Amino acid sequence: MIQRTHILGVGKAVPERVVTNDDLSRRMDTSDQWIQQRTGIRERHHIGSDCGASDLGRQAAEEALAEAGLGIADIDAIIFATLSPDIDWPASACLLAAKLGARAMPAFDVRNQCSGFLYSLASADALIRVGRARHVLVVGGEIHSTGIDITTRGREVAVIFGDGAGAVVLGPSPDGQCGLLSCHLHAEGKYAEKLWLEAASSRRRPRITVGDLGGDDPAAYPRMSGRYVFKHAVTRFPEVIQEALAANGCTPPDLDVLIPHQANLRINQFVAAALEIEESKVVNNIDRYGNTTAASIPIALYEARRDGRVKEGQLVCMAAFGAGFTWAAALFRW
Ligand SMILES: CC(C)(COP(=O)(O)OP(=O)(O)OC[C@H]1O[C@@H](n2cnc3c(N)ncnc32)[C@H](O)[C@@H]1OP(=O)(O)O)[C@@H](O)C(=O)NCCC(=O)NCCS
Q1: What is the pLDDT of residues 184-220, one digit of tens each?
Q2: Number of Cβ within a 10 Å radius of residue 66
Q3: Is 164 in the pocket of ligand 1 (CB under 6 A)?
Q4: Catalytic residue among 6, 46, 144, 261
Q5: Does ligand 1 come within 6 angstroms of the Cβ of 32?
Q6: What is the pTM of this model?
Q7: Which of 25, 83, 99, 239 falls 20 to 30 Å from 109 in CA-CA distance?
Q8: Contact, 163 vs 56, CB < 8 A?
């Protein structure tokens, strides 16, 4: 039985089209200053046309496979984290498997929003450690731009989200020592309605109506109690990071790199201050991508690996909080 798994390759894909805060302010009552002050976001990427989460996922997956020195034939399972699957069903993981030319293998989606990548990582780690798979492809991919209300009515949510994908290949740790130390997953469904998308809903016939799109309280777009989400995020993030560190006999000063989900720069600054972690140790790139939900951690990891911030031997923590509410952390010895 394999004792420890590690990330063997990382990939990233974002659409070419950059949408700045000024671009958005031409379509709704907002401003670059409001968005930057409240969220730290300067720009995000939106797809052009005819691109699904699995298409962006494919680009990221191919890059991750290349870095790992593996081909799709070496992969034994595919896990796709997304809240914006290409279609309602079947899973984007199945669509991606076909696009990559994968043989028959387990392929499934994890629908856990901003924590989806870490839930997927934990699932992949379990498959590998019990010997059900040697290499697992984990992708986080989102197309938000086609599902948000880019008018003043939807501005609170619309300015935050961006499109993107990140992918990792997990496999046995090269030396048996480095790799994933532990994953910690949480959910509290009583807060579901604080950040949610109600339509399409199997509770109703038809599942989506013209009224959903046109009413005062449109169900067809994501809705968020922003301040409520913020307050919970700044509590749960430090809590779950501490939990991961304590489970491995570590404390915040031991941490070399923190890769938090990119929901809001202010949230990440608050978390760093609460744990007394120097800001230079925290990977933030929300200014360029907005919140790409399940893709945000693998995209941030990709950049931190490429620019040398994540190096061998370091203690690296990934942490997320999002709709559900769900929250999670994963601790690595790189
Ligand atoms: C959404 C968020 C940025 C709002 O920031 P905030 O500091 O709470 O905002 P404020 O309460 O100061 O301002 C709200 C006001 O700005 C307005 N507003 C909302 N979105 C706006 C926008 N894009 N542009 C300009 N004004 C906007 C609101 O209508 C409200 O106006 P009112 O006071 O006249 O009612 C913040 O709450 C947040 O980031 N929450 C967490 C969201 C999150 O992380 N979501 C993803 C979780 S994974």
Answers
A1: 999 999 999 999 999 999 999 999 888 888 777 789 9
A2: 13
A3: no
A4: 261
A5: no
A6: 0.97
A7: 239
A8: yes
